[in-house]
Amino acid sequence: MNSIIGTYECKVDAKGRLLLPVTFKKQMTAALQDGFVLKRSVFQPCLELYPMKEWNLMMQKINKLNRFVKKNNDFIRRFTAGVKVVEIDNLGRLLIPKDLIVFAGISKDLVLSSAVNIVEIWDKDLYEKAIDDSVLDFADLAEDVMGNLNDDDNGIS
Question: Count of alpha carbons within 13 Å of 124, Cβ hemisphere only?
Fold first, then answer.
C-alpha cells in the first residue's frame, strides 16, 4: 500500500460513527473492499486504523514470535487487546466501538492523522496536546531517528 497522506479534522456522532472526508476516502479506495482493523495504540492515547493488508503484514511478523516465551505471549495479548475488524459503510462512515472511544478519550471532535501506512484516530484536544508537547524536542528527535540515515546520493535520507 502507498503511504497515506494528510491530517483531517472530523466529528463523531453519538453512536460513534465517523464520516470520512472525501479526500481521505479516495486514498483508501483500494482498501475499502478488504476492510480494516482498528486497535489501541501502543504508545499514545489514540486508535490505529490498519488497512487489512497492512494488518496481515503485521500479523506475519507477530506470528514469528515464540509463544513459549512469556514476554512474547504477554506482548501479543496486550498488542491485540481491543482489536476490532471494521468496515466503511456505503455512506463513507466508520463505526468506532464504544470501548475504543473510551480508551482514546474521543469526544465529538477528532483528528485523522496519517502515520505512513496506517491512520491514527485522535480526540482533537489530545492530538493538539501531543503535537504541542513534541514541538520543543522535535529537532532533537529528528536528528536521533533520521540523522544517521543517508541511503541516497542526493544528501536527503
Answer: 9
Q: Are 86 and 35 in contact (CB under 8 A)?
A: yes
3-state secondary structure (DSSP) of residue 93: strand
The residue among 98, 140, 134 whose CA lies nearest residue 113 is 134
CA distance 29 to 39: 21
Mean pLDDT of 66-73: 94
Q: Which helix (H) or strand (E) holds 111?
A: strand 109-115
Residue pair 117/27 in contact (Cβ under 8 Å)? The answer is no
Mean pLDDT over residues 48-55, rounded?
Answer: 95
* Measured distance CA(144)–CA(88) in Å, rounded: 38
119 vs 47: CA distance, rounded Å: 8
pLDDT score of 157 more than 50: no
pTM summary value? 0.85
**H or E element that contains 102:** helix 98-104
